[in-house]
């Protein structure tokens, strides 16, 4: 249950972060905006990837709580899950 709570809070925080970053359309004193920078677009893309991954993990945890089996039955799933948890949220 704690894992599901953490995954759901991760989804909410990613959604809040994305909405704040995407809604910022202010221009600076030189008429420049964040949309022009590759780093900003990279941050938005990583945020979307994190949101999708957290959504899948929340679905997997809730499915596991109901059926006692994971969605993906493969021996490489635990290393993949560990790698994604470490790599997607630096």
Describe this entry's structure for a reader.
This protein is an all-alpha fold and about 90 residues long. It has one domain. Helix content is about 70%, strand content about 0%. The protein has three helices and no strands. Helix 1 runs antiparallel to helix 2. The model has no long low-confidence stretch (mean pLDDT about 80).
Produce a short descriptive summary:
The chain has about 90 residues and is mainly alpha-helical. Helices cover about 70% and strands about 0% of the residues.
Low-confidence residue ranges: none
Helix content: over 70%
How many separate domains make up the residues? Answer: 1
Structural class: mainly alpha
Number of helices: 3
What's the end-to-end separation, in Å?
Answer: 24 Å
Gross morphology is elongated
Overall pLDDT score: 81
Rg, nearest Å: 17 Å
Query: Sheet bearing the most strands, described?
Result: none
User: What letter string, H or E per element, gives the SSE order?
Assistant: HHH
- The share of residues in extended strands comes to under 5%
What is the number of E strands? 0
Per-chain topology:
Blueprint: H1 2-23, H2 38-67, H3 77-87
Helix pairs in contact: 1-2
Keywords:
90 residues; mainly alpha; cell membrane; transmembrane helix; transmembrane
């Amino acid at each position: 249950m704690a894992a599901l709570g953490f995954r759901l809070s991760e989804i909410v925080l990613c959604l809040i972060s994305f909405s704040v970053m995407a809604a910022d359309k202010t221009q600076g004193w030189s008429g420049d905006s964040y949309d022009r920078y590759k780093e900003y677009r990279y941050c938005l893309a990583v945020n979307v990837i994190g949101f999708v991954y957290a959504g899948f993990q929340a679905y997997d945890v809730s499915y596991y709580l109901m059926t006692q089996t994971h969605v993906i039955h493969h021996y490489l799933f635990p290393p993949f899950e560990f790698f994604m948890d470490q790599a997607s949220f630096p």
